[in-house]
């Protein structure tokens, strides 16, 4: 049930959105009678909102021509928080959330100053969130400067110059930012690095400075920054390389394991999994939980780890 104050604000929102509405239509939208609606109109007039009233059977209400509410003032950090919150809500995939998110974005767009709206639009257009890893501990940039600057550059397809620190080494390079990703507790920028001559990933808490550079770029067709980052993590060289033939199809294999578990390749005999792990015992436990059969192709030491897991399960089941 609406609170009266909420209905008064809803009257103002209807007038701003539709320009002019009849009293009957507005009352119907709010679920009130005509007398109550007129009381809400008076309340708006009392706080200085100029409303024109047309009497008669076909009369209605409208805001005075040329009147606009002053823009709502947000700091850059507040605008960033709002835009990321709306992005996260849309990323949840709930059908009921989509209209509310679109409506909230439209309202914010109407009241924000142009410069701030451009920054919010850039976040919405260029940032991807991996909500499944959002609860994992990580780090954050010292402030939001790099995220804001790189999202604007990504949206406008403008090259930037980065000062970047990896370990104890500082470097400078020009980068075409394809997109930004929040993954496993960290913020990343993904794009073409002109120093290395290929697509690279940069952690934002290691970015020391972002400055404009000469030149623009085109986004590669179909490029997905989050998918690229996940694949990069999955193929990062580790202590052990393993190949396992999964006796299932590609869709089931991807449902059974996290995205960074490895690379999945459909073959005639099943799905070939290419995995990189630092601990074979962990890999054996993950495979043991799979709802389908599999065959270890390499390394042999993974079979020994699977036997250890199997023996533990047999003891737990009281079979030995």
TrEMBL record:
Keywords: Transcription, Transcription regulation
Pfam families: HTH_11, WCX, WYL
GO molecular function, one term: DNA-binding transcription factor activity
TM region(s), chain numbering: none
Domain HTH deoR-type: 4-63
Protein name: WYL domain-containing protein
Lineage, opening ranks: Bacteria, Pseudomonadati, Pseudomonadota, Betaproteobacteria, Burkholderiales
